[in-house]
Amino acid sequence: MPQLRIFRTLLLVGLPLLSSSAASGQELSSHQNLGLNDVYSIVLQRSEQDQIRNEDLAVAEARYRSSLSSYYPEVFLFGRKTYYDDYDSQDNSQLQSLLQQSQSGSSSSSSSTSSGSSFSRVNDPYQVGAGFRWPIFSGFQTYHESEARQSEKTSALLSKQRFRELLYRDVSEVYFQILEYQKTVQILSEEQQALLARIGELSRRVGIGRSSQGELLAARTEYNNSRVELERIRGLESTSRELLAFLMGIPADGFSLQNTVPLPEQGRLEAYLATVENRKDVLAAEQSVEAARARQDSSEGGYYPNANIEGSYYATQKPDYGRDW
């Protein structure tokens, strides 16, 4: 199998795990016989990329819930207090008198009590109460914004699932590479034993003149080529084992792989094409497009007028009048 996939797995999954490899290595230092699912569980548990995607999903969920809050009324408490300085409290008395005369001429039907309260200034007025605000129409901006957040949340979930699928594929590829190299090493070792036996037989036959020297040299050449190939396969096996050990955070000689896992069958092209539209990354991209469309509709809703219902209740105030909603 190509080695580029191994190094790609190392860069995407292995490097973020470097900070925690020592601690996990101490925990899993004993020799273990691991299956494919065991290896995948260990790698997934240590994957910082998976943890980042979990955080992205949590952020998308929080943003979606925040967008739903726009459907509900806003209830709040308030308190206001005004302070007047000394200059305002010592205004021109003649000007105050003129203002009172002008106002009393236009509202002669008002009572003397209310008239007096209109012109006498209250020092340090304040208001304390509760209020609410409920948007009843905003050009469907709230609806489209919540739809966009919902699509973003779904996209984040699908992206996380797709990452786990790709991680499982990469881990299984390295897993079966090691098993394949081990099987190849066994075959080459048996082949060398057979070649050594053949070389011994040819040496005996050359001594009695039953075989030529060329046959013996050809057998020795084949044996040496087998030795070279065996060392090459052992190097590839060691590289794959070191990579898998790094991803799991345990020593390379601290685990063995179960050889009872059957190799997956090669699926037909028709079966792949029938399910390609259900791939998590394709579905995540579709949800991202839906989010962009919903956000565009939300922006278009800004051209419409807004309608809100607002109300306030004054629990106490100074001066104490007009405390209706």
Can you walk through the features of this model?
With about 325 residues, the chain is mostly helical. It is built from 11 helices and 5 strands. The protein has a 3-stranded antiparallel sheet, with no helix packed on it. Strands 1-4 form a two-stranded parallel ribbon.
Average pLDDT level: 78
Which H/E pattern describes the elements?
HHEHHEHHHEHHEHHE
CATH class of the largest domain: Mainly Alpha
CATH fold name of the largest domain: Outer membrane efflux proteins (OEP)
Q: What share of the residues lie within helices?
A: 55-70%
Strand segment count: 5
Structural class: mainly alpha
Q: How large is the share of residues in beta strands?
A: 5-15%
Number of helices: 11
**Low-confidence segments:** 15-29, 106-119
The profile of the biggest β sheet is: 3 strands, antiparallel
Second CATH tier, the architecture of the largest domain: Up-down Bundle
Short structural summary:
With about 325 residues, the chain is mainly alpha-helical. It has helices at about 5-15, 20-25, 35-45, 50-70, 85-90, 95-105, 110-120, 140-205, 215-250, 270-275, 280-300, and strands at about 30-35, 75-80, 125-135, 255, 305-320. Helix 3 (about 35-45) crosses helix 8 and helix 8 (about 140-205) runs antiparallel to helix 11 (about 280-300).
Essential attributes:
2 domains; Outer membrane efflux proteins (OEP); mainly alpha; 325 residues; 11 helices; rod-shaped; two-stranded parallel sheet
